[in-house]
Design goal:
With 125 residues, the protein is mostly loops. Helix content is 5%, strand content 3%. It contains one helix and two strands, in the order E-E-H. It has one helix spanning 117-122, and strands at 111-112, 115-116. The chain has a two-stranded antiparallel ribbon with strand order 1-2. The radius of gyration is 19 Å and the shape is extended.
Length: 125
């Protein structure tokens, strides 16, 4: 078993390049991580609180696709949880939103495939 290195950066500026490393149980507090790139990573149980994500892009998120060596046709991603988030003007393109639940959300201007949802719901009353 490899030794676990503990690295502590306090009030320092650093550019970190990490390849094939395990950062489980790491904590980042009061950090500027703008313009970082995370590729081919396991972010299960990631917790982000009090962060500004304007301009962030999430692509190819979910379980490994059929052409990936870690593909498991029986694997199912655990649900994601968004609470008290400002997602206005965000775009979801080619996403599997089956089983998604919206509760106590402002849906003014929300459209799905060009259909204004508030008008659709107004027609039900």
């Amino acid at each position: 078993m490899e030794d676990i290195k503990q690295i502590s950066l306090d009030s320092e500026c650093a550019v970190i390049s990490a390849n094939s490393v395990m950062l489980s149980n790491s904590t980042f507090n009061d950090v500027n991580m703008s313009n970082i790139s995370i590729v081919d990573a396991n972010l299960s149980d990631l917790s982000i609180e009090g962060a500004q994500l304007g301009g962030a892009r999430f692509t190819n998120i979910g379980m490994a696709p059929p052409d990936h060596p870690m593909y498991d046709p029986n694997a199912e991603q655990r649900p994601l949880h968004f609470e008290d988030c400002d997602l206005h003007k965000s775009k979801f393109i080619n996403c599997d939103l089956s089983g998604v639940e919206l509760s106590d959300c402002n849906i003014d201007g929300l459209t799905i495939n060009g259909v204004l949802i508030s008008e659709l719901l107004a027609g039900r009353s």
